[in-house]
Amino acid sequence: MKSWLEKRALLSPDQIGLYAGKSAWTFREMNEEATELAEKISPHIQNQSPVALLITNQPQSVFLIHALQKIRVPVLMLNNRLSQKEWQYQLKDSQAQLVIYQDQFVINTDRAISIDELKTGECWPYVPFEEEDVCSVMYTSGTTGNPKGVMQTYDNHFSSASGSAFNIGHRPDDIWMCAVPLFHISGYSILMRSVIYGIGVRLYEKFDERSIHADLVNGKGSIISVVTTMLERLLDVKNERYHSFFRCMILGGGPAPLHMVERCHDEHIPVFQSYGMTETASQFTTLSPADATRKTGASGKPLFPGEIKITDEQGEGCDDYVIGEILVKGPSVTKGYLNNPSATQEAFSEGWLKTGDVGYLDEEGFLFVADRRSDLIISGGENVYPAEVESVLSGHPAVKEAGVVGKKDDRWGEVPAAFIVLIEEVEKETLHNFVSKRLAGYKVPKMYRFVNELPRNAAGKLVRRKLKEEINHESV
């Protein structure tokens, strides 16, 4: 089977597929760029193991992703905000055969090559791919243990794109504004939808609310994906009505505050609240603007043909309005975790993926997410798992144990806060520097509190809920 970009270049050669700054590329030109890169990457390919990309939102990054699809090897999208230690874990766990990186990054491995060092040479023989083959891999941290590599197949991406189009509609002149990172499923899925639908992507190197506001006003895009903090920043600078060409703002990364939803409704901003995860190749449920006011707080219904059910601790189905674990099923759901059959087996129950999130369904089938995993911290749309931060903190010789929870924050929604029991005295700055060298900036605690003991239940398990109540009660 041809790569998707090759197929799209055949069908819509003169349609513009990518806008970046003042430049634009047709699908034919994109295919030419990707082919040239594929010829340069190919001599470095030894097998069908993943190739890792350490990149930013640049046009060349888009061409690299499509080049790897031409070579038929999975692409491991490295989060460029992570630390060296985190990158090294992902490379080892995924058995990545190569890392291709932009010059601004430094990565300590002998399997790495910068984009500028790629030279054309003897080609690796191309292997035709099938829909069930792995297209991309993205690591997500679990509530316990090490991060896991989520495998996203071509069928996962195609099904996600189809479900989205069935829900929000499809226009041949659509332009999807991409200001979210390409290493996130939200950004990567936009590139896949572009070649599947045959529409343009307007790529932004970073999120700048004034620039994007101006583009929304001037009709530079019809669809945009945002998280709550991005929407808030857009509302802060909004002083004109958006162009009529703009028709859809997909909001993920946690439910939006009521006042924000109401303002969007009053100002005729077409916000589609959604729920999804890396394991579902982007959005899985979506709430349309028509239902936004009567279903405040809901994340919508599953996109066609996905299914959702809520179960209790015994795995039995819950009645309407009864909170339980959210399980999902459908063709956009991952087939499992890379090189981790035990985690895959644990995550599935009779074909249903156990998300670890809790929520309920109402009588109409609308999903309400009660908590994004009971202890998960969502900071600026980024997932922070307390167990991972606690593990790093506990690695300091002065720390006996640590408990990390989310503290409410006006800008980021939540930020990590750490409660620490010490073995010996240590400065907060010393701990902060220790953690900063080992974790991405958004995972580093913004507050440290030394305590005599941490709250635990009768089984000895840390009760983070009490810590969260304490820290947020004080911030009110």
From TrEMBL:
<dbReference type="Pfam" id="PF13193">
    <property type="entry name" value="AMP-binding_C"/>
</dbReference>
<dbReference type="GO" id="GO:0008756">
    <property type="term" value="F:o-succinylbenzoate-CoA ligase activity"/>
</dbReference>
<dbReference type="InterPro" id="IPR045851">
    <property type="entry name" value="AMP-bd_C_sf"/>
</dbReference>
<feature type="domain" description="AMP-dependent synthetase/ligase">
    <location>
        <begin position="6"/>
        <end position="338"/>
    </location>
</feature>
<dbReference type="Pfam" id="PF00501">
    <property type="entry name" value="AMP-binding"/>
</dbReference>
<keyword id="KW-0547">Nucleotide-binding</keyword>
<dbReference type="InterPro" id="IPR010192">
    <property type="entry name" value="MenE"/>
</dbReference>
<keyword id="KW-0436">Ligase</keyword>
<protein>
    <recommendedName>
        <fullName>2-succinylbenzoate--CoA ligase</fullName>
        <ecNumber>6.2.1.26</ecNumber>
    </recommendedName>
</protein>
<dbReference type="InterPro" id="IPR000873">
    <property type="entry name" value="AMP-dep_synth/lig_dom"/>
</dbReference>
<comment type="pathway">
    <text>Quinol/quinone metabolism; menaquinone biosynthesis.</text>
</comment>
<dbReference type="InterPro" id="IPR020845">
    <property type="entry name" value="AMP-binding_CS"/>
</dbReference>
<comment type="similarity">
    <text>Belongs to the ATP-dependent AMP-binding enzyme family. MenE subfamily.</text>
</comment>
<dbReference type="InterPro" id="IPR042099">
    <property type="entry name" value="ANL_N_sf"/>
</dbReference>
<keyword id="KW-0067">ATP-binding</keyword>
<dbReference type="InterPro" id="IPR025110">
    <property type="entry name" value="AMP-bd_C"/>
</dbReference>
<keyword id="KW-0474">Menaquinone biosynthesis</keyword>
<comment type="function">
    <text>Converts 2-succinylbenzoate (OSB) to 2-succinylbenzoyl-CoA (OSB-CoA).</text>
</comment>
<comment type="pathway">
    <text>Quinol/quinone metabolism; 1,4-dihydroxy-2-naphthoate biosynthesis; 1,4-dihydroxy-2-naphthoate from chorismate: step 5/7.</text>
</comment>
<feature type="domain" description="AMP-binding enzyme C-terminal">
    <location>
        <begin position="388"/>
        <end position="461"/>
    </location>
</feature>
